[in-house]
TrEMBL record:
PPR repeat start and end residues: 107-141, 213-247, 249-283, 284-318, 319-353, 389-423
Residue spans of biased composition, Polar residues class: 12-34
UniProt-annotated stretches for the region Disordered: 1-37
Similarity field: Belongs to the PPR family. P subfamily.
GO molecular function: mRNA binding
Protein name: Pentacotripeptide-repeat region of PRORP domain-containing protein
Positions in coiled-coil regions: none
Protein source organism: Handroanthus impetiginosus
Keyword terms of this UniProt record: Repeat
Length: 464
């Protein structure tokens, strides 16, 4: 019999449990034990509940006109929490309530924080509306606010609008674009591979009397490196060195070796590692992690071990991030024994596995066809207070879906929202593919409809 979900993304449960599989050799009358996906310490649970309750309580009041003299601390803390969590709809509702308070005084800093958040949340239209609201509040644009708006547009590939704001800034008193404004434009222009635009922006900077500093050069070096334009990267590095007023730092170091290492150009990576050390720069933990990942992706597992020894001699201890990289590398290589060994070593050293660790393990076990080990990971997660994310659920849903265990896959899908994780396109595509493979075409169509029904609300005005 097929399972039909009318509106899966909106399903909520106050407490979510996942039933473990019955052992075929066990007593048939025994009841399966519930596996709780997520636990919290009392302290963490108290903090989370306080934050959630505060945001929801203030949100409820946002739709009423009678709440215009609330306690300032409650409203401001709820707004800050919503911004930190990138909950843009909640943040805008709370901000609208804030503006209705008798004690409200408009501040450009608040607008700047909201604009940065909206850019991160892919809401450039809301950012534009918020900027108009700021003007209606009687505030004059500042460099920080305009730069935040430029970033919101540029981050979402609306470069013409971003450049238009920069031009407008030049005509506003005390609002000329600064090095940070131009650096943001450069960063996103490189991401879009608009290299001619980068040159144009650099010329604009010089024309405005703004010289490239360490931050701008580092953005150029990192951006060109990630875009695999190594000649431009090295040209920027040479310009930085020859400028005489820019000091190379660890970010420069890691950007260059990360660019070469990420593309498997190990010789260049090792050459620049030595060059930077001769210049007086010493590697940090991130440098070592870059080396380990680069060697692992190139199949040079012996050199991964050499880096660990190098770290030990210099009194650097591997962190959770280091072990996550190593576990991922051995998992991708199909070396389950070595991966499990590193996982045990990680725990023996007192390091707490996180969602990334468990995602890598689940993916490796799935590829190796070891569903029993996936069950073991689910049990470990249930007995820990690890904070899970959508990536973990996508991995484990894929594992059970690939194995044809549709019931467990659906239970995990239902558990997502209870754990604060929203399903994404990968979640839906994985479930649809698994259902089709099992001939559950009606269920697959239900999920396709729900995926299409996740509407983009970016055009809806939430303020004013």
């Amino acid at each position: 019999m097929e399972l039909h979900l009318r509106n899966p993304p909106n399903i909520r449960r106050s407490s979510v449990t996942v039933m473990s599989k019955k052992n075929p050799d066990s007593d048939s009358t025994s009841q399966p034990q519930p596996v709780q996906i997520r636990k919290f310490s009392k302290k963490d649970l108290s903090r989370i509940l306080r934050t959630e309750a505060a945001i929801k309580a203030i949100e409820k009041k946002a739709n009423s006109s009678k709440y215009n003299n609330l306690w300032p601390k409650a409203v401001l803390e709820a707004l800050n929490d919503a911004i930190k969590q990138n909950r843009w709809e909640s943040a805008l509702k709370i901000f609208d309530l804030l503006r209705k308070q008798h004690w409200y005084e408009p501040r450009t800093q608040t607008y700047a924080k909201l604009l940065v958040m909206l850019g991160k949340c892919k809401q450039p239209n809301q950012a534009s509306l918020l900027f108009e609201t700021m003007l209606s509040d009687g505030l004059q644009p500042t460099v920080d606010v305009c730069t935040a708006l430029v970033g919101a547009y540029a981050l979402n590939s609306l470069f013409e609008k971003a450049l238009s704001i920069v031009d407008d800034m030049k005509s506003v008193h005390n609002c000329n674009p600064d090095a940070f404004t131009y650096s943001i434009l450069i960063k996103y222009a490189i991401k879009l591979h608009w290299f001619d635009m980068v040159e144009f922006i650099l010329k604009e900077m010089l024309h405005s009397g703004i010289e490239c500093g360490t931050v701008t050069y580092n953005i150029l070096i990192d951006g060109y490196g990630k875009a695999k334009h190594f000649r431009l990267m090295e040209n920027s590095l040479n310009d930085m060195i020859q400028s005489g007023n820019c000091r190379l730092d660890i970010f420069t170091f890691n950007s260059v070796i990360g660019a070469y290492g990420g593309c498997g150009r190990i010789k260049e990576m090792e050459k620049w590692f030595d060059e930077f050390r001769l210049m007086g720069l010493e590697p940090d933990l991130m440098t070592y992690n870059i080396l380990i990942k680069s060697y692992g992706n190139s199949g040079l597992y012996g050199k991964m071990g050499s880096v660990l020894e190098f770290m030990k001699k210099r009194f650097f201890s591997p962190t959770v991030v280091t072990y996550n990289i190593i576990i991922e590398m051995f998992g991708k290589a199909g070396d389950i024994e070595k991966m499990d060994e590193m996982f045990l070593r990680m725990k023996h050293q007192g390091l707490k596995p996180n969602s990334i660790t468990y995602s890598s393990l689940v993916c490796a076990y799935r590829r190796a066809g070891l569903l029993g080990k996936v069950d073991s990971i689910l049990t470990q997660v249930a007995n820990s207070d690890v904070v899970l994310d959508t990536t973990f659920f996508n991995c484990i849903i894929n594992a059970y879906g690939s194995a044809g265990d549709i019931e467990k896959m659906m239970e995990l899908f239902m558990a997502m929202e209870g754990n604060g994780c929203k399903p994404d396109n990968i979640t839906f595509a994985t479930i649809i593919q698994a259902c089709r493979a099992q001939g559950m075409l009606d269920t697959a169509r239900d999920f396709e409809k729900n995926m299409l029904n996740v509407k983009n609300t970016s055009g809806r005005k939430l303020i004013g």
